[in-house]
Every structure is written in C-alpha cells, then in structure tokens.
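BUG-717 | component: ligand-complex export | severity: low

The export step for MV4 jobs runs without errors, but we want the raw record kept on the ticket for reference. Input record follows.
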Amino acid sequence: MFNKIMIANRGEIALRVIRACKELGISTVSVYSEADDKSLHVKYADEAYCIGPPPAKSSYLNVEELLEVAQDSGCDAVHPGYGFLSENAQFVDSVRKAGIEFIGPSASVIKKLGDKTVARSTMKKAGLPLIPGSPSTLKSESEAIDLANQFGYPCIIKASGGGGGRGMRLVFSDDDVPDAFNSAKREAEAFFSNPDVYLEKYLEEPRHIEFQILADKNGNVVHLGERDCSIQRRHQKLLEEAPSPRMTQVLRETMGNAAIQGAKAVKYENAGTFEFLLDKYGNFYFMEVNTRIQVEHPVTEMVTGVDLVKEQIRIASGEELPFRQSDIKISGHSIECRINAEDPQENFFPSPGKITTYNLPGGPGVRVDGISYQGYEIPPYYDSMVAKLIVWDPTRSGAINRMRRALDEYTIDGVKTTIPFHKMILFNAYFRKGEYSTNFIPKRILNEDKLIPKEIKKGLKTKLLGQKMHYFEEVASTNKIAKEMAASGAEEGTIVLAETQSGGIKGRIGREWISPFGGVCFSVILRPKVSPRHASKISLAAATAVCKTIRDLYGLDAKINWPNDVLLHGKKVSGILTDMAMDVNSIKYIVLGFGVNVNVEMLSFPTKIQKTATSIKEELGKTVLRREFIDALLLEFERQYTNFVNEQYDVILGEYKSLTYPFGGRVIVKDQDNLYEGTAIDINDDGAFIMKAKDGSLMTFFTGDVYDRPEEAIKKA
Ligand code: MV4
C-alpha cells in the first residue's frame, strides 16, 4: 500500500480522496492555487503546497509544478480526482515516468478511449451495441449525406474529441448537412484541437445510463450497477440516482456484462464508467467511457456499500478486488443533488461570493460531500459546485421525500444556489413516476410553465387589462413597481408581472409575502372614476375573480375568507393587496396586487406558512398552465371591474357573498392586535364584516382577519 498520496485536484473531490486516505492510514498532500488557501482540502491534508495563481492553467493544470510537489514531498502515488488532468494521457505518462503511480488507467487506455471514434470501433469489436453511425471520421459532406440517408433522419454530427455537447449538430434533412458539418468541425477544432467529426442516428428522448466498473491489475472486472444521469441542463448534470427507475434485473445484467466485456477488451484498470443511451424501447447503445472517478460516484457507493475511492487506491497499489460480481448487491435507492452557486432565475449564471449562513442538513440517510462553511468564499475561477447532497433510503419515494426534507434543512445565504430548482425537480409528477429522459429539464421544468409575456398576450381576451404588460424575471414587489409607474402616469389596465416575487410587499397588517417558483404574481393599475367611498369594494371584486377562476378552471372548492383571502380546504391559496392614491373627491389610482399559488410546491413555501398555505397544484395533484390561469383570471376580473365602474355594487357584493364562508358560524376576528369572538352575521353594503359579539352587540369591522378556528387566531396573536 502507498505511504503518501498527492491529490492533483481541489474542492470536494480532493477532500473526498483525503477522507479515503485517512481511513486507509495513508498520508496526504494537497495542492492549491492562491484562490483556494481557505479551502478545506488544504486544511484537512497532512501537507499542502501552493502551486500558483488562481487560473487553472497556472495551477491545477500546471504539470511541472505538480510533479515537483509530488517528488519533493515524497509521494508514491497521485490521485487526479475528476476534471483538470484526470483524463490527460500525457500527465499520466509524466507521473509514471517520475516513478510515481497514477491512480487510474494506463496512458494508452486513456488515449484510446478519449477519442470517441476510436472508442466506438474498439467497443464495436468487443461486441457492444453502437448507435447506427459512421464507421470512423467523416471525410466529406457527401459522405455524411449518404450515411444519413442510410440511417434515416434525424441524425447527429459529433466531435471525435468531444464531450459535453460541444461540436454537436442535429440534422433533419440533406439541406442541413453542409452547414452542420462545417460548423461542428470548426467548434471541434476550437474546443478539442481536433476537427474530426462523425455521424450517428439521433435517438429521441433517450435516458443517460452509466455503469460503474472496477478492474484490478489481475484482470478481474466487476460492475456496480448503474446511475441514471438523465436529469441534465445543457449537458451539466444536476441530479443523479441509483438505481435507474427504468432498470430491470435482466437489463442490468445485460448492460453490466457489456460494460465488463468492454473493459476486458482494452485491459482496463482501476475505476471507470461506461456511458450508454437507453431508448424508450429498452435498446441500449454504448456512447463513451469515462476513465476517472465521477462526480456522481456517491450514489453507487450508497447502494452497493463499496467505497469507490478506496478501491481505486487499493487497485493502484496492486491489490486484488476483494469481491466478485456475485458479491455485489444493489440495496435501496440513492439520489444526489449537485448544489451549485448559480442563479436558476438568471439562466444558471454563476453566483460566487461569500457564504454568510451555512447550515447543513443531517439526520438518517443524509450525506454531504462538500468543502463549504460559514464565511467561506466561493472563488470565481472554477466550477460553481458548493456541495453534493446525497441521500439513501430503502425505497425511491422514501429517498425523494428525504431529499426534499434535506434540501429544506439546507440553508445557504450570501450566494444564490440551485436548491430551489432541485425542489422543483423533486416535485415534478413525471420525475416522481420515474418517467423522464434527457429532455426532462427543458421539456418538463423550464418551458412547460414559463410566463412569456408574448404567449400570455396571445391568449388574452380582455379589452383593457393587460394590453400593456411589463414583465420581470424576479422582483421584490410588483406592487412597488406598479405604484411608481402609476404615479408617473401609466395608463389604466397596465400590468406588472413577475416570474417570481422574492418578498418585500407589506400586507394589510404588516405581513410580508413572497411568490415562490410556480406562483402567479402581478399588479394591475386602475383609474376608476367612482367615489372614493366605494373604492374598497374593488378588492372584494378581485377576491371574487380569483375564487371564481379557480372554481371554473379546476373544479376546486375555493372559498373567500373576508375580506379578500381565497382558501382551498381552509388553506390560503391567494393574497390580494390594494394600494390607493386618493384626492379629496376622487381616486388618483388603485394598484391591485394579485398573488396566487398556482404551481407552487409545498416545500417551496417558507416553513412557517407550510401549515396554512397551499397551491392549486397541491390540491389538484398536478401542474396546470399558469398562462391559462392568468388569461381566465384577467377576463373574470375585467367583468368584475366593469360592474365596479358602472357602480353596480349590489351585483359585486351578491357574487362575493355567494363565495364566502357561510354566515352563522363561530369566528374570531383579529383587528390590529385585539381578538374578538362571536358569530359571523353578514357583510354590509360597504363591504364591512358584521359580527355578533358574545354580549349580543353587533360589531362592524372594516379591516382585520377572520378565523373560523379560534385556536389558530390565538396562536397567531
Ligand atoms: C446523442 C443523443 C441522441 N442520439 N446521440 C450529449 C452529450 C454527448 N456525450 C452525447 N449526447 C447525446 N448524444 C445520439 N445518437 C442525445 C444526446 C444528449 C444527451 C446525452 C446524455 C445526456 C444528456 C443529453 C442531453 C442532450 C442530448
């Protein structure tokens, strides 16, 4: 066994290797760039050496410097982690030439499998199924056209040196080929310094399934089952799980044996991953081999109980695998979420910076592989992964629930993270059913329910409302913006709409509220020519519109709780805010803010309102189209508003009362800070709430909250 290992990497994977070494009694040497001196991989190693300035080229990719550290510190092995130099055959060569063991396959195998066309032909010879495609590099446009016609369109042109979706072009007809061929070659040259491209039949909606293998120096090869890595965005994996929800015992054996056969054919050594595409008919095709430990290796560790990094080290030191294929059992289910410092609201733009609050999740079945802590500053030079959150449970649905719970516990302030986005994935009905492909994120999460103003306007049947629309991705408060616009003369019917609202509106009695992912949130500017005496009835009309729309569109039993909360099964599904600017005898403008929890998932709500709030999606058990909801709501509200400007207050109040909780029930009204108990009697012509107090007197409330469950009111007070 080795005495001392240098980890030629940074961040969580460097720490992961250090942990394995510590448990094996091996000394560790970390290297770090000037940007990483506060990283835990530096702190937890026995020795650590700075190898240069922040850019990876000058530090983590600086072969000379790395070799010098490895030799001077007396290391007998180097672990490359993933990324950086982990699949660089030249680096492997120079490490081994220096008499140091490289923990990974041989340079020649890395080289062979790094070229995708060579890997394809090698694996074809080994008997693995390939996607129908060109036997080798494409020589010309006409060769590409001939092959595409042979396989049938659509086809895909890929870079031989490729990966990560770079240098890939889809072609649907002969006409597409020349441009695609040439631009793929240009991109391939730019990214991989290799202009070679090849062509394959394009598989629609495949799953990305990869098999973990371990191979020792004696030719023993085992597979450790699969990981489903189909949940990706722009070729960046977001969430991985093991086993795949699509897998069967027979398919696992067939695919696993294919991976073993492929590994044996190239005399593979150490840990490796065979990537496959699995089509909807259950056919699988070899894609490529990754010759490194992978980011998502923990899910395999959780379901097999094998420590992959320790096995890598043992194999490199010449030890024989301590198990045979028949010893490997897949037990339970594991999911990994990559927590990145990125803003899902801003196209996943990196959000480096200082972590001001950092509270880790814990409890049964929860594992965090990361290097962050309170006060840690995420450097902007490298990838933006903060940590990997991994859970295990005996069942898949248990693992999903556990992951949601753990994501809820995870508090990271100071930077934006992908935590809320993961919650959306975990709530998606298709994900929960395990019905997903590599198109899942664009098809089921990003496009399905985006509030594109153009699309909303297309469906709009209103004459007045929303004909002018201002759209924002994320704002603190649409009401605040609408008020500013109204004050500077924005016309009647103008709408300020936000994809999400992050908080900041103060409600009637100082409550703040937010509209998380999936909510509908907009403010309308109105300039009605009615007497200020009647102005407050517009918020009753707004509640009627929300309540009716929910009933009509989804058949749910929505009810109004005076004055303008809309409830589903006693839980709040909508809030309405009214801001008025008055002159002595006229209304200057009214800004009405609508917040409706349409597709909001329970775990997206702030914890403290999870018991009292709900959403249409939660009550209906499925996602609905927010766009359609907005169309219908605006149409209904326009009808209410027409009655309002025509001073038909009796009609407004009549409809309103038919949707409120029945009168005669016992209620508590909270007015400022006082509680009044009594019986609900009526709503009068001014829209005020009339209650009969215990002493028999009638009380009239113009503002307040009504509770039909007294305990709740008392708790709130
Ligand atoms: C494909 C494909 C469909 N048909 N090849 C994307 C990255 C690269 N490693 C291979 N990729 C794909 N190759 C054929 N013939 C679809 C993809 C693909 C994909 C693959 C795995 C995981 C996510 C993906 C997302 C989009 C496209």
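Assignee comment: Attached the raw record above. Residues 131, 156, 163, 165, 200-203, 206, 208, 232, 235, 277, 287, 438 surround MV4 (CB under 6 Å).
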